[in-house]
């Protein structure tokens, strides 16, 4: 009897019970995951005693016993077990190693990993092992969420609303985590209002703070902030999609539509295909940034140990690439130990630039097939969207750099050498676009330069990036539209391409909604916090809405109502005014009609 015929008999015998058994294991998996995650969060945030920690470890090990049984049951009930094993080889290998380690403890009364560690003189291998399986447990839960993500198509929620809900959920989770006792140094528990403000600022990759990030939080608190920045920068739905791709379950149309809107891709398929490259490039850039920063810190900075230096490197790399602006120094990059570390400033600036240029642009710039095609047919070159984002960004950086260099000569640049002045001007121009880092004291910057910064912050980064603002493409389309109106041209043509009326209407809508939102915020702040001065509150409002994070130093001194306005600005600016409008509006039943043309006097 062949293996195939045996397999068919087993499938027939198990067919009637398959649906019930697999459903029970799914429910059990959800309950187990919820319970273990709760234990891990409790251990991370409340520092339980040794006895409770030991019980938590026992429960974690027991949960892996459940996952081993579940994995074997999945293989047993699968119509193609060998194919399932090939697709889930990593999960199977890890569970097998966990099983072997447990058996060795049971039979030989010694952990196999401890024995190996003693043999190779790595005595804490068991501790690394427990940390690893805890991390991998989160991966297992993520894969489970990813498998469920295609069911988004069955939810009666449009993509913009789902995107908003994902950020609200991330913010609320972040607020709860930051309020745990182990997150803060001086207080037992961070107050809700301050935790909410900080969570919104981190999740919306803004960087405005009401407490000193460096001294107020413990390293655990800094880890939570870093995770919020990473999840907020790339968007939490994207992480679920990544796990869905790894689980080989595919994506629903609604989920693909979210990706298309979030990353400004040209089609549903391009949004799905771009996602893998987004994560690979993001983590690659953050890793490179971490390595470069690790070897660039000023030797005068006295890190407690190498692990602290490593953490500072990865935190600032993640914060810079995601254009968040959070720093582990009380004065930001204006700290006296690093304000003259110009090589480090250039590394941070590079991370900011690649994070703000937009993932579709990066994919086009570094696409190997596109480069080969361009060598054969040079007239094809880059996509029009890439040219607009890339060249507009370079123009704005150069403009901001020159303005800062000439306007701040007798102010913040006074006393610096030529190299320091040029790098400082270059850095402020890049960071003002959407990043929020500072190597000078912004409370000392003159009003003319603050106005230039407001202009740069309002435009912001490029579409499909981690940055905010109305975006470079919106700014470019509006400029071209104005020039064509003056010239009397009816069509907008850029690079031998005609811009559709729909794109132009979208650009003007974004510009109008954003301008109106910022104007309203400034008006309300002038009532609630008018004593701070019009320029500082205008700068604060634009910085919050464009998710920049730069401030003249008034954030912590704002009234409670003023801080609420800033929180709303950060949230609306991160999700986008047009996304919010689509989420709140209802669709028209029909567009198949047209009213007679009207004549209005304009101008």
Question: What labels would you give this structure?
Answer:
603 residues, mainly alpha, two-stranded antiparallel sheet, 25 helices
Summarize the structure.
The chain has about 600 residues and is mainly alpha-helical. Among the domains are: about 1-155, no CATH class; about 360-585, no CATH class. It has helices at about 5-45, 50-75, 80-85, 90-110, 110-120, 125-150, 160-180, 190-205, 215, 220-235, 235-245, 255-265, 270-295, 305-320, 340-355, 360-365, 370-375, 385-405, 420-435, 445-460, 470-485, 500-530, 535-545, 560-575, 575-585, and strands at about 495, 495-500.
Secondary structure layout plus pairing:
Layout: H1 3-46, H2 50-77, H3 81-87, H4 89-108, H5 112-119, H6 125-148, H7 159-178, H8 192-203, H9 213-216, H10 219-234, H11 236-246, H12 253-263, H13 268-294, H14 306-321, H15 342-356, H16 359-365, H17 368-376, H18 384-407, H19 418-434, H20 447-459, H21 472-487, E1 493-494, E2 497-498, H22 501-528, H23 534-545, H24 560-575, H25 577-584
Antiparallel strand pairs: 1-2
Helix pairs in contact: 1-2, 2-3, 2-4, 6-11, 7-8, 7-10, 7-12, 7-25, 8-10, 10-11, 12-13, 13-14, 13-15, 14-15, 15-19, 16-18, 18-19, 18-20, 19-20, 20-23, 21-22, 22-23, 22-24, 23-24
Would you mind describing this structure in some detail?
- With 603 residues, this protein is mainly α.
- Among the domains are: 1-154, no CATH class; 359-583, no CATH class.
- Helix content is 68%, strand content 1%.
- It has 25 helices and two strands.
- It has a two-stranded antiparallel sheet with strand order 1-2.
- A hairpin with a 2-residue loop joins strand 1 and strand 2 (497-498).
- Helix 8 crosses helix 10 (219-234) and helix 16 packs across helix 18.
- Mean pLDDT is 80; it is low at 120-125, 246-251 and 267-271.
């Amino acid at each position: 009897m062949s293996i195939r015929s045996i397999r068919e008999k087993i499938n027939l015998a198990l067919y009637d019970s398959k649906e019930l058994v697999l459903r029970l294991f799914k429910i059990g998996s959800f309950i187990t995951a919820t319970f273990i995650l709760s234990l891990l969060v409790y251990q991370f945030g409340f520092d339980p005693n040794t006895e409770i920690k030991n019980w938590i470890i026992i429960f974690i090990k027991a949960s892996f016993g459940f996952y081993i049984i579940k994995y074997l049951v999945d293989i047993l009930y699968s119509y193609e077990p060998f194919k399932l094993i090939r697709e889930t080889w990593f999960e199977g290998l890890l569970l097998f190693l966990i099983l072997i380690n447990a058996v060795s403890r049971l039979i030989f009364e010694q952990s196999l990993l401890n024995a190996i560690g003693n043999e190779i003189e790595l005595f804490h291998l068991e501790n690394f092992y427990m940390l690893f399986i805890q991390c991998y447990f989160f991966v297992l839960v993520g894969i489970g969420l990813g498998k469920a993500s295609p069911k988004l198509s069955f939810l009666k929620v449009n993509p913009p609303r789902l995107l908003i809900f994902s950020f609200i959920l991330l913010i609320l989770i972040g607020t709860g985590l930051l309020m745990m006792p182990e997150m803060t140094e001086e207080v037992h528990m961070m107050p809700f209002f301050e935790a909410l403000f900080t969570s919104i600022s981190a999740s919306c990759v803004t960087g405005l703070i009401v407490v000193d990030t460096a001294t107020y939080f413990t390293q655990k608190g800094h880890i939570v902030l870093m995770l919020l920045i990473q999840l907020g920068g790339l968007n939490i739905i994207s992480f679920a999609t990544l796990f869905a791709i790894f689980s080989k379950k595919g994506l629903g149309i609604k989920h693909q539509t979210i990706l298309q809107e979030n990353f400004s891709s040209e089609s549903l398929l391009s949004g799905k295909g771009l996602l893998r490259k987004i994560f690979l490039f993001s983590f690659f850039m953050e890793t490179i940034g971490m390595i470069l920063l690790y070897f660039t810190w000023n030797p005068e900075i006295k890190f407690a140990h190498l692990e602290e230096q490593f953490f500072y490197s990865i935190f600032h790399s993640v914060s810079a690439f995601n254009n968040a602006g959070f720093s582990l120094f009380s004065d930001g990059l204006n700290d006296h130990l690093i304000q003259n570390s110009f090589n480090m400033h250039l590394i941070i600036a590079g991370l900011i630039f690649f994070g703000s240029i937009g993932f579709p642009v990066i994919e086009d710039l570094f696409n190997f097939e596109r480069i080969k095609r361009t060598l054969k047919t040079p007239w094809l070159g880059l996509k029009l969207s890439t040219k607009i984002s890339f060249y507009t960004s370079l123009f704005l950086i150069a403009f901001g750099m020159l303005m800062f260099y000439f306007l701040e000569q007798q102010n913040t640049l006074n006393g610096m050498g030529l190299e320091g002045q040029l790098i400082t001007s270059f850095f402020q121009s890049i960071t003002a676009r959407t990043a929020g880092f500072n190597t000078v004291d912004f409370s000392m910057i003159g009003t003319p330069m603050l106005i230039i910064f407001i202009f740069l912050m309002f435009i912001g980064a490029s579409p499909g990036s981690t940055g905010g603002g109305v975006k470079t493409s919106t700014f470019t389309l509006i400029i071209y539209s104005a020039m064509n109106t003056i010239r009397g041209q009816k069509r907008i043509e850029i690079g031998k391409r005609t811009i559709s009326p729909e794109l132009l209407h979208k650009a003007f809508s974004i510009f109008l909604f954003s301008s109106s939102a910022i104007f309203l915020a400034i008006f309300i702040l002038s009532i609630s916090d008018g004593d701070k001065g019009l320029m500082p509150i205008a700068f604060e409002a634009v910085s919050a809405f464009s998710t920049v994070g730069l401030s003249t130093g008034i954030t912590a001194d704002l009234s409670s109502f003023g801080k609420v306005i800033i929180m709303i600005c950060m949230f609306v600016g991160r999700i986008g005014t047009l996304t919010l409008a689509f989420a709140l509006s209802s669709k028209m039943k029909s567009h198949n009609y047209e009213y007679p043309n009207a004549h209005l006097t304009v101008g």
